[in-house]
């Protein structure tokens, strides 16, 4: 069952119960009030008849010392005839509670006579022949006799009015429920419309349309729910987009990796087959062997860098204080044999908080890339300086540069701006990807600025960790 119908059904049940109970109590209250009024009138009538009986008995000539039964019967007949048209019935009984006079149709019920005592008045409501009566019983003391006077007042109209009241109220309740149901259906439709819109949006998104958003039509709690749903959908769409990009990047990575393996392996297999199947002169033998060795080293270098990237993505580091001069000496030793380009270095004295081997790998890759991008005789500048937040490094060349549209892609694995130049120098497009991962472990990142034909400048800054180092020393001392 739909939510709107549940609300409507429970509303109708609640209203029907409320109308039914209130109608029952209201009609019964009116009935009780009318019945109490009739009881008071019946008691007043009984008192009047009691007085009339006493008066009539006193007016009878005193032939006997005791009021005779025949006289009582005559008085009863006179009292009934005087009250014709009022619908009142009476019965007079003697001391033994035997009827001396009774109106036609008077009930044979003697329960009140059995219960009445001296100087008491009893009454009850009885049903007889589809009519309702108020029966009143009282004791009359006259001429040394105790007589019992009973009256019956017809109150059928009071009960008929109660029945008509219930009938009218039932019809009124039905009409009210019908009108209320129509109004509540309209209200429920308006109230649950945001839920319907959310359900529709959910179906659209489940069908694959992640750009679909629910329309907000109110500012209440349901409106807030709609806003939260749309915010969640925005985050979900963004996350799915990132996942798609990641999947695409992995596919590109696998394709590039396969391609990078295929090229050197083809050459290695071809030259190896040439060496084993033919007898070559010394020069061709040397060239073939050298090509196999060069391509093998490129594969080895690529595998090591891939392994480094995988390791850095899974590891955490604990940076240690290192003198900046350490990296300057390392770079001088590594590139001392380079005669094609000039290496200019300028490091300010300072402390660098890093993992030494990883940072050497970063600087080595950046400088190596700068050399590859520079023409023979070009200059590569490497500098370091102390900053307010730590220590900053810069590697700058004046080589070919990187197109602006390529800057965001150069840190992707196997991405190469100029594939022919990179392969000719044993490059595989892994250096900057490795640097990016190592700097991520240091809470840093590469900042690349480049112009085609003017060169490239790469900066990164390692944060100062004096407080962390001090805390670590304190713990060790403790």
Structure description:
The protein has 11 helices and 12 strands. The two termini are 69 Å apart. It has helices at 3-58, 69-82, 111-115, 156-206, 221-277, 282-314, 324-334, 356-373, 419-424, 431-441, 466-477; strands at residues 88-93, 99-102, 121-128, 131-142, 145-154, 320-323, 342-347, 351-354, 379-386, 390-397, 447-451, 455-463. Among the domains are: 3-164, Beta-Lactamase (2-Layer Sandwich); 316-477, Histidine kinase-like ATPase, C-terminal domain (Heat Shock Protein 90). By secondary structure, the protein is α+β, with helices and mostly antiparallel strands.
Furnish the topology, listing elements before pairings:
Layout: H1 3-58, H2 69-82, E1 88-93, E2 99-102, H3 111-115, E3 121-128, E4 131-142, E5 145-154, H4 156-206, H5 221-277, H6 282-314, E6 320-323, H7 324-334, E7 342-347, E8 351-354, H8 356-373, E9 379-386, E10 390-397, H9 419-424, H10 431-441, E11 447-451, E12 455-463, H11 466-477
Parallel strand pairs: 7-9
Antiparallel strand pairs: 1-2, 1-5, 3-4, 4-5, 6-8, 9-10, 10-12, 11-12
List keywords for this structure.
single chain; 478 residues; alpha+beta; Beta-Lactamase; Heat Shock Protein 90; 5-stranded antiparallel β-sheet; 5-stranded mixed β-sheet; 11 helices; 57% helix; disordered C terminus
């Amino acid at each position: 069952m739909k939510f709107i119908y549940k609300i409507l059904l429970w509303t109708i049940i609640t209203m029907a119960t409320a109308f039914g109970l209130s109608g029952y109590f209201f009609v019964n209250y009116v009935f009780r009030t009318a019945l109490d009024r009739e009881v008071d009138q019946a008691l007043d009538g009984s008192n009047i008849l009691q007085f009339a009986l006493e008066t009539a008995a006193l007016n009878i000539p005193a032939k006997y010392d005791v009021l005779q039964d025949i006289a009582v019967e005559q008085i009863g007949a006179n009292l009934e005839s005087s009250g014709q048209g009022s619908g009142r019935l009476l019965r007079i009984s003697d001391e033994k509670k035997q009827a001396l006079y009774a109106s036609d149709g008077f009930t044979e019920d003697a329960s009140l006579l059995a219960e009445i005592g001296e100087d008491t008045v009893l009454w009850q409501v009885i049903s007889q022949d589809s009519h309702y009566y108020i029966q009143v019983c009282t004791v009359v003391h006259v001429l040394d006799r105790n007589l019992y006077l009973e009256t019956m007042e017809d109150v059928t109209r009071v009960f008929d009015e109660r029945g008509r009241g219930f009938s009218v109220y039932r019809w009124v309740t039905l009409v009210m429920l019908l009108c209320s149901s129509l109004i509540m259906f309209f209200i429920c439709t308006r109230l649950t419309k945001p839920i319907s819109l959310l359900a529709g949006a959910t179906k659209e998104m489940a069908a694959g349309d992640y750009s679909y958003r629910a329309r907000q039509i109110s500012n209440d709690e349901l409106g807030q729910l709609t806003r939260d749903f749309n915010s969640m959908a925005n985050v979900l769409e963004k996350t799915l987009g990132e996942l798609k990009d990641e999947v695409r990047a992995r596919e590109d990575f696998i394709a590039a990796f396969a391609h990078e393996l295929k090229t050197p392996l083809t050459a290695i297999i071809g030259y190896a087959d040439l060496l084993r199947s033919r007898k070559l002169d010394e020069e061709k033998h040397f060239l073939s062997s050298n090509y196999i060795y060069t391509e093998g080293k490129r594969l080895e270098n690529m595998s090591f860098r891939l392994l480094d990237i995988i390791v850095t993505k899974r590891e955490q580091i604990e940076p240690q204080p290192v003198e900046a001069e350490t990296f300057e000496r390392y770079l001088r030793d590594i590139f001392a044999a380079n005669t094609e380009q000039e290496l200019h270095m300028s490091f300010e004295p300072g402390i660098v908080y890093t993992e030494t081997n990883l940072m050497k790998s970063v600087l080595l890759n950046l400088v190596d890339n700068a050399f590859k991008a520079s023409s023979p005789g070009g200059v590569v500048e490497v500098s370091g300086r102390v900053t307010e937040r730590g220590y900053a490094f810069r590697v700058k060349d004046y080589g070919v540069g990187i197109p602006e549209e390529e800057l965001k892609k150069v840190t992707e694995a196997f991405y190469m701006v100029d594939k022919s130049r990179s392969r000719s120098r044993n490059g595989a497009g892994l250096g900057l990807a490795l640097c990016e991962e190592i700097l991520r472990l240091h809470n840093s990142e590469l900042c690349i600025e480049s112009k085609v034909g003017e060169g490239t400048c790469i900066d990164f800054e390692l944060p100062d960790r004096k407080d962390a180092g001090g805390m670590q020393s304190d713990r060790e001392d403790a």
